[in-house]
Amino acid sequence: MLLHLLRHAHAGDPAAWEGPDDVRPLSDKGRGQAERLGKFLARVGFRADAIVTSPKRRALETAEIVAGHLETAVTVDDRLAGSFELAALEEVLEAHGRPERLVLVGHDPDFSELLALLCAAEIPMRKGALARVEIGSACRSPALARPPRPAQARGLTGVSPRGSRRATRSATGIRPPGTRSRASAPSRSATSGARR
Known about the structure:
Helices cover 30% and strands 16% of the residues. It has helices spanning 28-43, 57-70, 86-95, 110-119, 169-172, 188-191; strands at 2-7, 50-53, 74-76, 101-106, 129-134, 153-158. It is globular and about 45 Å long.
């Protein structure tokens, strides 16, 4: 099984948003990120059996933009809006028929923490980042196969303002040849608590 975690694209400053957080939309920058990611994935022949998203507007918009390029339907699952841990992942997998190539669209800090658990390495997910985790067949958990070794975690892309050719270091742990290192993401203590 290939599990893809897609953190919603840029949605502006949550502190500056007036209104319920659930309806905070993507910013223009975020819409551009999602468009570039969708175009990139379509260009490389990416295929998803299912795209399941949080109902929060910024995640739903990200999922719909990317899914439009992939010609894949989007399903909303409320479990992606709250605390999303391993048990919730198992429930989502079972509820959606355990598709072979699943894309989940959601929030941080949940996705970074889940990715760290699955890969046995701390891998922060930046806004608009997509990470792929190959889940094998020998399993500690009934719904998940054994968490992969860190080398099995692959990030496809994290869309940067410069375009989708460059992988996001935080999601992949690697940079393509010829790219420069970027500043690291804020510490977890600086971002913990809020689902962004």
